């Protein structure tokens, strides 16, 4: 059976104290370069690896962070996770990823599990069902560091990173108007989600700027953000059954955008002959679709990086943190 080497083993073999071995491997200034060289070369020769459990007990840290997202398969979230990992692993932290599948109950269970695993902090994008954040407020009050990204809450004062959703929605809607469309519908996720509120505002402002009246009947909500195909199909059918059918639609979500194209195909609704469409999507799959979809892209990778940097700053701070920032990242209209 393989038995890993310990600091005591190295100290015994080389005739140094365990504290000297530990300081040399941590590259502290108290140990001479010659001694460091001897110790490091020997540690490398015997393939020594630090014990992460012992380290975490000593530092009172698990060196791990929990990530809560709706769905890893969603292109936007997979890109954000890549950004999170690019920072976390370089800083010596492990990343534990959980999915809510847009369920409030699953979000609560996942967060309780991560907290019980003693993660050092949480990166959270709320589920479409989540309107009550008391499960998070309780942990935050107990001192667990957390940073929200993409879907945020105003109930908890901490760092937040979002895209400029209002600007993106404005540009997507204005693009349709400039193409000559006047009856523009809006398909979105849960009404209470921060991204839904901001994107609806952008949609309304674009209509107002171009003197097109806002029609409540043209706004349809999918409570699970396109997680269930039937929700999207029902919303589209309701729009197409209106006396004055929309001639275009702005879709406010990555999964919703792809589901919307599938619904149109299955209902034999031709794009752009029957209806035009713009959406929020980071998926490169759209380039392969015929017709393709003009969309708003979010800097998902950068958002993941910034959120992680913010979280690690809180985790590693020697003093309580009271100054928090809400960072808004620019979006871009990707015309296809």
UniProtKB/TrEMBL annotation:
A GO term, aspect molecular function: DNA-binding transcription factor activity
Cross-referenced Gene3D superfamilies: 3.40.50.2300, lambda repressor-like DNA-binding domains
Occurrences of domain HTH lacI-type (ranges): 5-59
Domain of life the protein comes from: Bacteria
Keyword Transcription: yes
UniProt keyword DNA-binding, yes or no: yes
Keywords: DNA-binding, Transcription, Transcription regulation
Name of protein: LacI transcriptional regulator
């Amino acid at each position: 059976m393989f038995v890993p080497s310990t600091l005591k083993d190295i100290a015994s073999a080389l005739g140094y104290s365990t504290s000297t071995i530990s300081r040399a491997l941590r590259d502290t200034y108290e140990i001479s370069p010659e001694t460091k060289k001897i110790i490091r070369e020997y540690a490398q020769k015997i393939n020594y690896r630090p014990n992460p459990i012992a380290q975490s007990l000593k530092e009172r840290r698990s060196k791990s962070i929990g990530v809560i997202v709706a769905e890893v398969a969603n292109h936007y979230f997979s890109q954000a996770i890549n950004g999170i990992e690019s920072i976390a692993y370089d800083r010596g932290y492990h990343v534990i990823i959980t999915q809510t599948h847009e369920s409030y109950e699953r979000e609560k269970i996942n967060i309780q599990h991560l907290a019980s695993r003693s993660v050092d902090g949480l990166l959270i994008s709320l589920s479409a069902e989540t309107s009550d954040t008391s499960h998070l407020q309780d942990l935050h009050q107990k001192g667990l560091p957390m940073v929200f990204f993409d879907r945020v809450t105003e109930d908890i004062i901490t760092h937040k990173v979002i895209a400029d959703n209002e600007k993106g929605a404005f540009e997507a809607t204005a693009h349709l108007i400039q193409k000559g469309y006047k009856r523009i519908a809006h398909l979105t996720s849960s009404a209470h989600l921060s991204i839904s509120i901001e994107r609806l505002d952008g949609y309304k402002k674009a209509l107002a700027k171009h003197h097109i009246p806002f029609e409540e009947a043209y706004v349809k909500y999918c409570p699970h953000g396109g997680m269930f195909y039937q929700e999207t199909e029902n919303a589209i059918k309701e729009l197409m059954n209106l006396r004055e059918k929309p001639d275009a639609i702005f879709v406010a979500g990555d999964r919703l955008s792809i589901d919307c194209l599938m619904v149109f195909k299955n209902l034999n609704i031709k794009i752009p002959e029957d209806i035009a469409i713009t959406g929020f999507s980071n998926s490169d799959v759209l380039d392969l679709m015929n017709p393709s979809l003009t969309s708003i892209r979010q800097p998902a990778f950068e958002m993941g990086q910034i959120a992680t940097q913010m979280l690690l700053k809180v985790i590693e701070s020697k003093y309580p943190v009271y100054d928090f920032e809400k960072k808004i990242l620019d979006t871009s209209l990707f015309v296809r």
